[in-house]
């Protein structure tokens, strides 16, 4: 079954001007009416690190979560954040960014790879105890801007290790700096999906406007059925070195999936309203 993950958290987190809490609540409630599988809505990290998302708990309290709804995913960076997020019954999934680049892991979560492995174990224990799912984002899966050794086999090694050691069942391969291409996407998904059939591999792809179709097509044809995006394609990693590199645009991704006759079950009227709001929130 195909899973669409909408990531307003990723789109908002780098914005300098604070988006009022009430606006976030209204936007997220609009997204909840669309019918996405999951909404990556906020994070429980230090407000000094990401001031834009310091109001995540207040936003959560304002959401309309009645009836059948999208799953809610919150990003955490350590056990403290995981415990805080897990205390909220409304949150279904904890997401942790595990980088195969030590430099990026240090920059992103202030942890070495070995320390990050320990954190994964702690976070998995917290998630299991609270009845939450855990999604691991395999950051820098498609390249490394720091001069460290990178090879697809390194990403495969870490995916295998995280699955075997901790029983992680959802891993999103993350194109953190937008460096992926058709060949690297095809190679990773084609290698990992048959080898680890118990794991749901997602595509969290960053892209320039001209490359989006090649990337989503390569992932789909290689067997990926979980896709992250953000309306308007806003956000992305500031280290990408290209102002045009952003998140995969959800609206473009949806157009591709409709073209190949995927049944998404989305509320098109609600999607149009959410898109109108996105145009107002994101420059």
Describe the structure.
The protein is α/β, with parallel strands linked by helices and 283 residues long. The chain has a single domain (3-281), classed as Aldolase class I (TIM Barrel), CATH 3.20.20.70. Helices cover 42% and strands 18% of the residues. It is built from 11 helices and 9 strands. It has an 8-stranded parallel β-barrel, surrounded by 8 helices. Helix 4 runs parallel beside helix 6. The longest helix is centred in the middle third of the chain and has 18 residues, at 113-130. The relative contact order is 0.14. The model has no long low-confidence stretch (mean pLDDT 93).
Major sheet: size, sense and barrel closure?
A: 8 strands, parallel, barrel
> How many structural domains can be distinguished in the coordinates?
1
Annotation field: number of helices: 11
Radius of gyration: 17 Å
Head-to-tail CA distance between termini: 33 Å
- Gross CATH architecture: Alpha-Beta Barrel
- The ordered H/E elements are EHHEHEHEHHEHEHEHEEHH
CATH homologous superfamily placement: Aldolase class I
Q: Percent range for helical residues? A: 40-55%
Strand segment count: 9
Mean pLDDT, as a whole number? 93
The class by helix and strand makeup works out as alpha/beta
**Overall 3D shape:** globular
Query: Low-confidence parts, pLDDT < 50 over ≥5 residues?
Result: none
Q: What is the CATH C-level name?
A: Alpha Beta
CATH topology category name: TIM Barrel
Beta percentage is 15-25%
